[in-house]
Amino acid sequence: MDIRSQISMVFHLDKCIGCHTCSIACKNTWTDRKGAEYMWWNNVETKPGTGYPTKWEDQKIYKGGWEKKGDFLNLKGAGKIKGIKNLFHNPNMPEMDDYYEPWTYEYSNLFDAPEGDDQPTARPISLLTGKPMDVKGGPNWDDDLSGTPDYARQDVNLNSVSQAEQEAMFQLEQMTMHYLPRICNHCLNPSCVASCPSGAIYKRGEDGIVLVNQNKCRGWRMCVTACPYKKTYYNWNTGKSEKCILCFPRLETGQTPACMHTCVGRIRYLGVMLYDADLINTVAISDDADLVSNQMEIYLDPNDPKIIEAAKKNGISDDTLEAAQKSPVYKFVKEWGLALPLHPEFRTVPNLFYVPPLLPTMGKVEDGNYHNSAKELFGGIEKTRLPISYMASLFTAGNEDTIKTVLKKLMAVRWYRRDETVGDQSKSELEVMLKEVGVDHEVADDIYRLTSLPTVKERYVIPPAHREEALEMIEDSGDVKGNTGFGFHHKPERGL
After folding, report:
1. Is the omega angle on the peptide bond into residue 53 within 30 degrees of 0, that is, cis?
2. Pairing relation of β-strands 352-355 and 3-12?
């Protein structure tokens, strides 16, 4: 058992209001400069929709992530042989039109225009060429446009939804949308790391954050192809690849990442997870139906004395263990089983989890009043406005039973709280609901508390940074026999 620590995140989609404050905070902090204008390390998409870059989920186009070959994994669009073949022409790379051509405006035409009868305008000017352009797209071009033929109906996840269900969805096009905020998943099995010919991308041993060494990067852009979430970008000005760094300078000083600090809906949670690195390959080669359940097994109980002892032997500090024990991410992901990974079929074992949206089920109207009992709503989980097959395509690699279980837990907690505050529910029906999903009153109260009333310290449990141990690890790495800490027992191999 090789125990390591990982900074992980949970996004609660029922709370996201699509304000894009997180995206602007990240943009102003990290990518507001030449060559990075089109980069959005954090972006918020409308679902159903094509996302950013366009159709990023369709790996038939982009060849991102891993593919299973028996008991082995191969990169879909990168690797030694594929990389050499595509060295000077990579057909699986997103093009500028898949993102958008960044632009500014010719403000001088506005500010310096002479007095006249006409209204002066500021023409859009390309930030790449400096010439006038026609704006055709943007990072959130399909914002709030669920149901449109150009965007929502092109959603790759609809391939798992029957034509009849799709038509029913789009008759309610203004009531089915939800938001999907995305950042780098800082995966346990990152395909971007494996694809880099220069060895410039690495995963930090002390907290699992995936970074790009700008001194080593040679701009091969294999990482752009390999990342199935398209969260690695090419800076056309510096000739280097860049990506979300999870605001590690802020984390090291006890501050939350910029996107999380500014989140208006308070949908974001951050904490430490302990995991067994020996199980990564076992999880990654699982059958699609078992990917989520097997990934849950890789995360370990930070309160188990045996796990604590093994973690300490592997160089994990007491501070990190204490943070893991208080982690809100562990509660949502492992203890309560409410948060799920995005597209686990990419087999990168991502560490960003989502509590899926509990979209309303359709009730009935009698005498002008809309009403429904808890029992009827619970039985109608499969008739939510977004089909279960669509949600399963997003979060469980097609396993609909897992999605149903999560939605039923969320529904049970919601109706438990309604009974606590309004008192209009059948006690017997409510107890049956809670028992069916394995939730008692105490757990239901805990879920409600962490979802609706958490303090900042409860949402973000950041372990103190032990950079002195990281430096010690580097200094001692010449001794291949010694324990270099943070789960590494040998000198890291140099990149090719």
Report:
1. yes
2. parallel
Cα dist from 66 to 78, 137, 151, 289, 344, whole Å: 9, 30, 27, 16, 11
The two beta strands, 210-212 and 72-75, are: unpaired
Q: Is pLDDT of 191 > 60?
A: yes
331 lies in a domain?
Answer: no
Alpha helices in 7-54 (DSSP H): 21-30
User: Please, which residues have CB within 8 angstroms of residue 482's CB and are 6 or more apart in sequence?
Assistant: 476
Listed residues 230, 251, 272: the one ending a domain: 251
Q: What is the DSSP letter of 333?
A: I
Which of the residue ranges 111-120, 365-374, 402-411, 474-483 would you say has the lowest mean pLDDT?
474-483
**Is residue 87 in some structural domain?**
yes
Residue from 123, 76, 79, 77 nearest 103 by CA:
123
pTM for the predicted model, two decimal places: 0.89
Domain containing residue 168: 10-102+136-251
Instruction: Identify whether 442 is part of a domain.
Output: yes
Who's near 356: CB < 8 A, 6+ residues apart? 13, 340, 391, 394, 395, 403, 406, 407, 410
Q: Rounded to whole angstroms, how far apart are CA atoms 398 and 393?
A: 5
| CA–CA dist 3, 33 (Å, integer) | 39
The residue count of the chain comes to 496
